[in-house]
Amino acid sequence: MIDGWETAQEQVRTPRCRLHGAPDNANLVVRMVLEELGAEHDFVHVDRVASEQKSETYRQLNPQGLIPVLEWPGQDAPVFETGAIVLMLVDHHRRLAPVQEAPERGRFLKWLFSCPTRCTPTCAYHSSRIAIFPPKTSLAFSLRR
Ligand SMILES: N[C@@H](CCC(=O)N[C@@H](CS)C(=O)NCC(=O)O)C(=O)O
């Protein structure tokens, strides 16, 4: 049976990953998802005051010089773009989002790709709640569109 939101009965174990970001930035959504999934991770602070994200070293992770970046064991390159990172995480765990076959998948994807990439962290915070919380929770219920 396709539940639409959570089909995995077992907790998926993930190798420890590394998130590069700064407080109150686009990486906030990624951090929330990692924590919701219980995924072990290290946080690497990128000093935006010193424009560390524009350094040659950081550009090895993301040539655009933007945060966040997730280093994910098993991937052949660091993953950037908030929406891509979140999608990779929730699909890998098969949790917190509708599965590919679910009728809610399109609704999940449209908010995932529009909000975190364009809005302030506060808005991204709320949009992530639409995406990652099961539809029967009260907050998700009030925000479902
Ligand atoms: N489309 C990217 C946007 C990332 C982005 O704009 N990050 C900002 C912080 S929220 C950044 O790194 N700014 C630093 C800069 O512009 O130098 C994503 O969704 O990850």
What's this, in brief?
The protein is α+β, with helices and mostly antiparallel strands and 145 residues long. 41% of the residues lie in helices and 10% in strands.
What gyration radius follows from the Cα positions, in whole Å?
A: 15 Å
Text of the CATH class: Alpha Beta
The third-level CATH topology is Glutaredoxin
The structure class reads alpha+beta
By DSSP, the count of extended strands is 4
Q: What's the overall average pLDDT, rounded?
A: 79
Placed side by side, the strands forming the largest sheet appear as 2-1-3-4
Describe the fold and architecture.
The chain is globular and about 45 Å long. Strand 1, helix 1 and strand 2 (about 40-45) form a beta-alpha-beta unit. By secondary structure, it is α+β, with helices and mostly antiparallel strands. It contains six helices and four strands. It has one domain: Glutaredoxin (3-Layer(aba) Sandwich). A four-stranded mixed beta sheet has the order 2-1-3-4, covered by helices on one side. Glutathione binds near residues 67 and 81.
Keywords:
6 helices; alpha+beta; four-stranded mixed β-sheet; binds glutathione; globular; 145 residues
How is the secondary structure organized here?
Blueprint: E1 17-21, H1 27-37, E2 41-45, H2 56-59, E3 69-71, E4 79-80, H3 82-93, H4 105-118, H5 121-132, H6 138-143
Parallel strand pairs: 1-2
Antiparallel strand pairs: 1-3, 3-4
Glutathione (GSH) binds near residues 26, 65, 68, 116 and 117.
